[in-house]
Amino acid sequence: MSFDIDKLRIGVIGLGYVGLPLAVEFGKQYSTTGFDVNDARIAELRDGIDSTLEVSGGELASVKQLELMRYIEVIEECLGMTAEKNMLPLQPGDVPDTYADASDLANDVGYRPDTSIEVGISNFIDWYLDYYKPDHKLRA
């Protein structure tokens, strides 16, 4: 099995005394997503604070690629509301890891997506709201 190290994405489950320092170190070089079931913990880390003192504020600030459930956060920002999260263990049919490599397809068709997560999610939400016109208010 081979992979492109420049496209590596790392996920760290649990941002405690082992997970947070690990996520910070990986995040210095690779796109890294940290997951934790404690919303207060995620909020403090987003603010550059680690109350457990596993890493310094400077270390948190130096990490350029650490994402904390970024997809959900962008949706929340776009809608102006906070998602109610119910963290569950893997469910039947969930795929914990994938090693999909679409580079051959990209080479064959000459297309590589370059839209950021923020722009893509915002565009999708705009389209969805315009197309479906939901009865309930989705934007705060």
What does this structure look like?
With 140 residues, the chain is mostly helical. The chain is built from six helices and three strands. It has two domains: 8-68, no CATH class; 96-140, no CATH class. Helix content is 40%, strand content 9%. A three-stranded parallel sheet has the order 1-2-3, with helices on one face.
Task: Describe what is shown at a glance.
The chain is mainly alpha-helical and 140 residues long.
Secondary structure layout:
Blueprint: E1 9-13, H1 19-27, E2 31-35, H2 39-46, H3 57-62, E3 66-68, H4 70-79, H5 103-109, H6 117-132
Helix pairs in contact: 4-6
Low-confidence stretches: none
Number of domains: 2
Strand content: 5-15%
Lateral arrangement of strands in the main beta sheet: 1-2-3
Structural class: mainly alpha
End-to-end CA span:
46 Å
Any descriptors?
single chain, 9% strand, globular, 3 strands, mainly alpha
